[in-house]
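Table S2 (text version). Query chain:
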Amino acid sequence: MQISTALYRLLTHGQLLVRGLARRTSRRSVASLGLVILVALAGVVLPAATPARASGIDRRFLPSRLMAAIDDLERRGEAVKHVAIGKDDSWTWVVLYGRNGFIAQGIPQGLTSRLNELNHRKVEINLVELGANDGWVVIYDREWEFHSRLPDGLERALVDSTAKGATIEYVMMDRKGHYFMRSSTANYWNLPPLADEQVTWMTRAGRTINGIMYGQVQCFEDCTGVIGYVIVFDGTKVWREQGCCIGMGDIKEALSDIQGGRPRVRAAMSGFDNSWAIFSE
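Corresponding structure-token output:
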């Protein structure tokens, strides 16, 4: 018998609520509450079972059209390779699947044309990253191309990796002109002080940085536009900058889903409106 993720979580939360109240209410009250929860569940019509993390992707904080595109690809048996989320104040995104397939919304026409050309030539598209001000970079067949101004140092990192014959495995650009890039031989980055300190330590310690995400910082004063960072490393570990309001509990839950002998995280990305996605191996 299969049970949907939504129903499982609702049942679990109901059980926890009953257990918590049992410490300070009578058994009759708790029993009544449990009956109410079950009656409520009986009247709920839930969608067909769809796992929160399918095909190695946890995408609970993505726009509905992007989630629908991923779901459609999974129903068709297509392997989703990569997701890029725009950094400007609108929903733009790209999904890469198979060798060179892609689905996109709101991306610059130049990037659409380039991806169509690579698809027509049957060139393997490895990854795409969307930056601020309609900037983008696409990695394909050990080559790369970009549009608009890249964050300081990123073009040099791309050139250096290509010259060394390294494979570019991950690129992150934020909306403030910072970046992180991981190749098969080295890490390259230009990040604010706290994130820079962590990445420096992780790199020297031989840690694998799977992905860097960022989100709006919460504070009592006006901090519009101030962002904080979340670093996923060594497959299952997380460091978060204080105040970053990317859903830390949800990220930890996503990571716990892939512990215990299951696949480890291979990439993590974020974008507009504190959206994020995690890929496992």
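Notes on Table S2: The mean pLDDT is 75. The radius of gyration is 21 Å.
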